[in-house]
Amino acid sequence: MDDNVVNPDGEQHLRRRSLLAAAGVLGLTGGAVAVTRGAPAEAAAGVTKKVTIYAEALPGGQFGYGLTRGGATIPGPVLEMYEGDTLEITLVNTTTQRLSIHPHGVDYSTESDGAPFNNSFNAPGETRTYVWRSHEMTAAAGRRFMPGSAGYWHYHDHAMGTDHGTAGLIKGLYGALIVRRRGDILPDKQVTVVFNDLLINNKAAPDTPMFEASLGQRVEWIAIGHGNFFHTFHLHAHRWADNRTGMLEGPSDPSQVIDNKDLNPGSSFGFQVLAGEAVGPGAWMYHCHVQSHSDTGMAGIFLVRNADGTMPPGAQEAIDRFQGHQHTAAAAKTHQHGGTGS
Questions:
Q1: Which of 66, 67, 149, 219 is a plausible cystine mate for 134, CB 3.0–4.6 Å?
Q2: Which distant-in-sequence residues (6+ apart) come within 8 Å of 202 by Cβ?
Q3: Which positions of the chain have pLDDT values less than 50?
Q4: CATH: 3.90.1300.10, 3.40.50.720, 2.60.40.420, 3.20.20.140. Which one for 189-336?
Q5: End-to-end CA distance of the chain
Q6: What is the pTM of this model?
Q7: Long-range contacts made by residues 236-241, C-beta under 8 angstroms, separation at least 24?
């Protein structure tokens, strides 16, 4: 598989080494880092990575971010860094619209805020550099600690349509941002799920992304919320710890183990699972657990293939049933009986 892969659903998946280590993609300064999938991450402290991102118009009146001209996707590429690193993002606005790129969870000056309030945006056709920094946990008084930047975050437009970027968010200008702590385990595969109003990655079932993995592969999920509705994210047959990484740090770790979590506008979280662990391969559903939302099409499939990559028994039949299901019929019935759909 290539480092940069666009699946049939149009979502761009980037191998960890692409954005954590590959100088050819990032123009990374400070030395490349060898990354072994499924192993603890190691990196030199304080490196600066330079990324060029193109904001482009897409069919159907949508917009996206991409690492190459003509390569914009919804969601945009996953951007990754370690605590202590800096990302210098050169945003090339190829559109006729005002837009920007605004991050959550990292450090930046007002010039890199990505908000018109701070005069931080790209005019149509303009190229602008945004600098995002990160820092490690620090000790504070009273045996307490100030948190570092590590976490599953996200980025998005903050300037199209309104000074809050409402039009940009509706039309697809968003993506995942991960800040890792040194020693974190890296996944084999990575998927991004964005609940945006009543869509997933700006699509409704049965056209929502089908994510695939082989039995036993370590899969990292990044979940992001946008829009105007309350959501919950549920993944069938898999579970994770409700903490920074989704993994328990030891037998006494008090983190609750869950398979359903609130995912509301502006929020994000992430976790790793071993595909099919304890349940086996199959076509497993992921969806919003607000019933009127899943009924209208906020659902998709996580296909866990056999370890050799072959299709498990019954999986294709389940996919066919999902693709033939009329999600909007249930939604219409709900509204006829007074449901709000929100």
A1: 149
A2: 62, 74, 171, 172, 194, 196
A3: 1-19, 21-37, 329-342
A4: 2.60.40.420
A5: 40
A6: 0.84
A7: 236/284, 236/285, 236/286, 236/302, 237/276, 237/279, 237/282, 237/284, 238/273, 238/275, 238/277, 238/279, 238/284, 238/302, 239/273, 240/271, 240/272, 240/273, 241/271
